[in-house]
Amino acid sequence: MPGWGTGSFENEEAQIWFAQLKTLGPVDLRKIFTAVDETDYVASVDASVVIAAAEVVAALTGAPAQSLPQEIEDWVKRAAELPDLNDAARTLLSAQARHAVNRVRVSSELKDLWLEADGLNEWSTGLRDLEQRLTS
After folding, report:
1. Could you tell me how far CA 14 lies from the centroid of its own chain?
2. Within a domain: 7
3. Reduced to 3 DSSP states, what percent helix, strand and coil does the chain have, rounded to the nearest 5?
4. How close are the terminal C-alpha atoms of the chain, in Å?
């Protein structure tokens, strides 16, 4: 099984990444999302980080997950004050996040692990919800 549960925050990779979040900015999130286009198959660790980063963007754009980790709430509060994070930048970041999440859902090691663990439907449903929140 690739994590404790199928949710965006229910894996060790996301928890480790959250500890680093306070030192990251919007440019760092963009790098995470664009990196998935540099490979045909996204490794499970990278996929978990993409999903966690996309949850940050969803919260930033006003569509947070129901149970949001404190690290994301803190980051969003700080990011709201950044002058380079205007509406256009948020829209671009959201589109990049949505594209990256779709890549993870369609072609990633994490997808294959959830298929083997019989959790693919629940995991895919969660990612579709995240994609929808990134569209709002």
Report:
1. 9
2. no
3. 70, 0, 30
4. 31
* Token pair of 109 as six digits: 């090691």
**CA torsion angle 10 75 71 27 (round to 10):** 50
* Residue 1 located in a structural domain: no
Overall number of domains in the chain = 1
Range of the domain at 110: 12-135
Torsion, Cα 60 15 51 64, to 10 degrees, reads -30
Q: Which residues contact 114 (CB under 8 A, 6 or more apart)?
A: 2, 6, 120, 123, 124
Q: What is the pLDDT of residues 42-81, one digit of tens each?
A: 999 999 999 999 999 999 999 999 989 999 999 999 998 8
pTM reported for the whole predicted model: 0.94
